[in-house]
Amino acid sequence: MSPPPSTSIRRRRFLLLTVLAFLVILFFFHSSDSSSWRLPAILRDSSSNLSRANIVSLVKFKQQGPNNNQLSSKKVDEIYGLIHLVTGGDEEHQHVLVNKGDFDPTEPVGMEVYAPGEVMDWEEEMERLNDVFPVVVFSKSFCPFSARAKRLLEEYELVPQPMVIEVDLRDDATQIKALLTRLTSQSTFPNIIVQGKSIGGSDDLKRLHESGALKKLLEKAGVEVEGDV
Prior knowledge:
alpha/beta, two-stranded parallel sheet
């Protein structure tokens, strides 16, 4: 007598999951160095049941890496790590770079430095920052050039409004200045960032405004210009 249809379906499902698990395990070990030749706990535990959830967890473990809190993604410019840090809204974020003893802002920095203890998908975070904070102004509170640039941007009545970071009022001012120098090739303030790209300082902003290019540049970045400029 042939087995009932439900038994046959369960058998096929089991075989499919087994094959899928085997392929995922091969993927996990592929290109791994000797120190990475181990299974995550979810599969080392013999009491764990094989399921689609287990397989998904294994794939995430491979993407994330055993010693990294950042999900793997395509290359995202380091400037987005800095923007993530300074727009966090938490005063404790100012101490992240200061308290990192081996931090050298003149050399490329791993993205995890900007988000300690956070599991980040930097592609998604880049998109979020471009949407929520498309214009970031690194300013000095006492600098007349910074004041001039901020006044000009105010005339544009931008939506969303520029995120202004008064660098000199932060504990990590020295580190931010060094990072901006390396990442944007500009060491002076203000330093105006539009969707991860520096458009320069006060004089550059004025030139873009006078040529009519600034409005177009901002609108192309998805910023609404409501001022009569």
